[in-house]
Amino acid sequence: MLTIRCPHCGERTHTEFTFIGDGERERPADDASEAVWYDYVYLRDNRRGPLAEIWQHTLGCRGFALVERDLVTHAVSGTRPLPPARLPGASS
Amino acid sequence: MTFMRSRDAGPPPAASQLPQPGRLASGGAVNREQALAFSFDGKRLAGYAGDTLASALLANGVHLVGRSFKYHRPRGILSAGPEEPNAIVRIGGGDRADPNSRATMAELHEGLVAESQNRFPSLNIDLGAVNSLVSRFLPSGFYYKTFIGPGFVGQNRAWMVYEKGIRHAAGMGRGVPHADPDTYEHRTAHCDVIVVGGGPAGLAAALAAADSGADVILVDERPALGGQLRFETYEIDGVVAPDFAARIASDLASRPNVRVLTRTTAFGFYDHGTVALLERVTDHLGPTAPAGLPRQRRWQVKARQVVLAQGAIERPLVFADNDLPGVMLASAVRRYASEYGVAAGRQVLVFTTNDDGYRTAIDLKARGIGVVLVADARPVPGIVADWARGAGIEVLAGHVVTQATGRGRVQGAAVAPLAGGRARIVACDLIAMTGGFSPAVHLHSQAGGKLVWRDEISAFVPGRIGQAARSAGAGNGVFALDALIREGAEAGAAAAEAAGFARRELPGWQVADEAPAAPAEPLWAVALPEGVKAKRFVDFQNDVTASDLGLAVRENYRSIEHVKRYTTLGMGTDQGKTSNINGLAIVAEARGAPIPEVGTTTFRPPYTPVTLGALAGAEVGQHHAPKRRTPMDAWHRANGAVMTASGLWDRPKTYVRAGETYREAWIRETLIVRAGVGICDVSTLGKIDVQGPDAQAFLDRLYCNPMASLAVGKARYGLMLRDDGFVMDDGTVTRIAENRFYVTTTTANAAKVLMHMEYLLATAWPDMKVQVASITDQFGQIAVAGPRARAVLEKIAGRALGDEVLPHLGTAEAVAAGVPVRLFRVSYSGEMAYEVAAPWRGALAVWEALVAAGAMPYGLEAMGAMRIEKGHVAGAELDGRTTPADLRLGRMVSAKKHFVGKAMLGRAGLTDPDRLRLVGLEPADGVTPIPAGANLVHDPNAPAPMQILGHVTSATWSPTLRKSIALALMRPSATEGGRMVVAAAPIIGAVVPVKVVDPVFFDSAGERMHG
To answer: Exposure winner among B29, B339, B499, B979, fewest CB in 10 A?
Structure first.
């Protein structure tokens, strides 16, 4: 019953999407320490407020969107495509 | 007073001839030309079209309609709306029975059959009434303090005995043990403005929004629009209220941008302007409902703006024996008289704390009903009292009813000064009470709206809300008619404006009514008279009294949420509509705290009960989930396959021939595969196409074993880990061309692996030039296994397929049965085996060609037995808690490259040598089957909790080795010092001592797949 604006397809109901997770994590470098990886894999902030989340439009274009959603009120303040900027540690 | 039908009598009298002693000679919107026969508890009665079951019962002088939940006290109709707590009856029979239906909302139709509930053997003589005699042992929460012991039975055992009796006594209606024969629909609608509530405020809002050009949906739970206009007697625009309502309704019906839904309850207000509606399409038609219509529709409305105009619910007054049949809400009494032409009583006493009670007194008097007295708790009532006296009605200011008197029905009321003093008994047959009105804030609160307490009206009204919604009218705490109409119009116009439509002139209606209202006086409970032992009910449906609330506070339940659950206040099917505010106010007084500090309990949908059928819609039975079928599905079923669900897929377990048992079938299949050749439909495996210049590098990062060295034309088994180091899935990767790979996954994880790939490409490695696509549904896939597999394939492909053409772990293209196919040489069974991938449309032809060439089909049972014989891991072992080393695949993990999961795989906990590890098991006696899922322990009779050494993951009878075998995950230390291990499953009473062996039971050198 949430409405999410897919950057490619426009406004759709949330049942067309799959919630992927926290969009504010940075994937560690390949050679980062075990402690840094542990943080990335297991630890999450549980904020009472807005969070940028990754949703995938699995029943549509299968693209990804970054949704700014308030975890208390569910108000969605914005949707944008995943940033093209590279995350540290990613390599080709 | 109906005619009793005896066997020798003629046909029963027509409905039109049955008397209705409670019916007024004229008036009401019912159709007196159309009499309807119905029955209540077996008694044949008559009403008119337009009646509800409740109005028809009252028209027949029937007040006793049920027995209360706990004390089994006689109960009568309290209200005229969905807030009804007492008149909860069973309507209909057989597979269309509807328990716990409110008689006040059920529309009468010809032949309606209704029964009272919660009584045995009858409503008049109910054995449950004995509860009333022992009521002092049954206060709120009594079950927390009783039913413990006697000690000699053992505490747990004693409760098991009591529980059966309590379970039988609890609950109101009886469930319906039949499948629902009706169909239900789901519909979705979008609109600019949805207006909830078709009373004067809602009508004004809908008109104002429609005038602006917005798309409007207007919903009302009753059969016709109007709300209070349907039964009030004032005039608007020179026309009496019910006629005015009809005029506005037809105006709205004529507008193309307005959709009116009557008989529709808005039961939930969810996120982002989503309002859920339940439309009752045919319930009111009974047997004349046209076939092909759904019984009910559940709407999901996406509204850009929401206007809540749901009105307010009248509060009962809390005084001794206020639950006697004949004690009713005052506005309901005048509604029955005005809208239905029914006199609920002929000698009415009005007990009020506000001006609205006088409206009832004056209206009833004008209709020729005797009004004995108005007892107004306020010492200074205001101008309405003079009007009442002018109409010949006695008014006692500053007086309250302290007790309703009578046996099973109101026969009088004890009236005393509020300040104290002797009571006098006043004879009457109906007490019309009103404690004021509580705005219906349910939907506002469900959507996260805050509530604000307004002292001057003793009510919670809607406060801030984080959604595009606004409240108007009585639901917003505005009760004066002209004010609420103006507020409704303004709300509708503002909503349309917010949705982008230009404002137009608001509807201006001339209201001829209103007196300046004297303030209401809150009176939350009338004190029990001196020496009187009686109950003062707050929650009628759950039998919660004022003293129960006092008890809860004394036992230190401070929070209203705790009080609610301890006393069950507001937990019945009426969700406390007539009890919430009185209850929390009484708690506030007992705690000495202001009401806003006590607050309300959380409001949750649905506002009124919703049938499960309406929620399920058409997705029932087989339609609960989509069914996926392989290209060979029909062939399997036509050839004796016993199918099973594998996720959403249907797959064959085995193919049973004539004269065979199920077990004989799969044993036969296994032996034939190992001795000859068999084919298995593996189309359900996930297949993913991976392309691009970086595809190989991508796959090398994805799997824990090396993929960078995979040459064109070769296949490789791959193990994929999660970021936390645990095995996620296994499959094969085949390099079809330089930059193109055909990846398979397990059936269950196909979607998960694809999403894993897409996620990493989108977030972790966006610079990699790789495209992935699911091709699961594009190709059918057939496993061909056994010593004669190659011969059969060569026959259908028409070419040689020796090791030089198609070596182990190789791939090649061919044409079989005219269908281009890709061959893979991979083995799951351990035999020489291939997999044949064919385009979906051609897969059946290939399958049939293989059958014609002598291959025999085998299913999941045989496949499972063979892979267990070979110690190959599958879903039961890949349970998300195992690492490659746990599965004895540690040598697959690359030490050189980076791959997903590498960092976490090195954690101390994942490298602990005593982790659960894959082993094989055989029963010590060589015969007893080992149950999959059994725990491994040293001694099952040791006191619990005991150390668990592991568990059995997969088990089978091995046709090849002719013994029971199993795979398990077990700590290596379990067998130290030669200790015995036992597989125990207490839940099925299995205890099997086992021998721990190598998990590869058969062909441990892996020679058979080389042919």
So the answer is: B979
Residue B468 at interface with chain A, using a CB cutoff of 8 Å = no
Name B853's Cβ contacts closer than 8 Å, sequence gap at least 6.
B792, B795, B796
Q: What angle do CA B496, B497, B503 make, to 5 degrees?
A: 95
User: What residues have CB less than 8 Å from B300, skipping those under 6 apart?
Assistant: A1, B186, B187, B188, B189, B274, B275, B276, B277
Q: How many CB pairs under 8 A join A and B?
A: 74
The residue of B194, B275, B696, B763 whose CB has the most chain A CBs within 10 angstroms, and thus the best one to mutate to test that interface, is B763
For B155, the 3-state DSSP assignment is helix
**Amino acid type, B29:** A
> Which residue range(s) make up the domain with A59?
3-27+35-86
**Chain A residues with CB-CB distance to B904 below 8 A:** 34, 37-38, 41
Q: What is the DSSP letter of B23?
A: B
Nearest to A67 by CA among A87, A51, A46: A51
Q: Which residues of B226-243 are buried (b: 16+ CB within 10 A; e: fewer)?
A: bbbbbbbeeebeeeebbe
In a domain, A71, yes or no: yes
Give per-residue pLDDT as tens, B299-343.
999 999 999 999 999 999 999 999 999 999 999 999 999 999 999
| DSSP category for residue B639 | T
Residue A16, domain member (yes or no): yes
| Closest by CA position to A78, among listed A25, A26, A40, A23 | A23
Q: Per the domain annotation, does A62 fall within a domain?
A: yes
CATH code for the domain of A9: 3.30.2270.10
Count of domains in chain A? 1
> Is the separation of the CB atoms in B551 and B565 below 8 Å?
no
Q: What is the pLDDT of residues B119-139, one digit of tens each?
A: 888 888 888 888 888 888 888
Does residue A92 sit within a domain?
no
Peptide bond into A81 cis (omega under 30): no
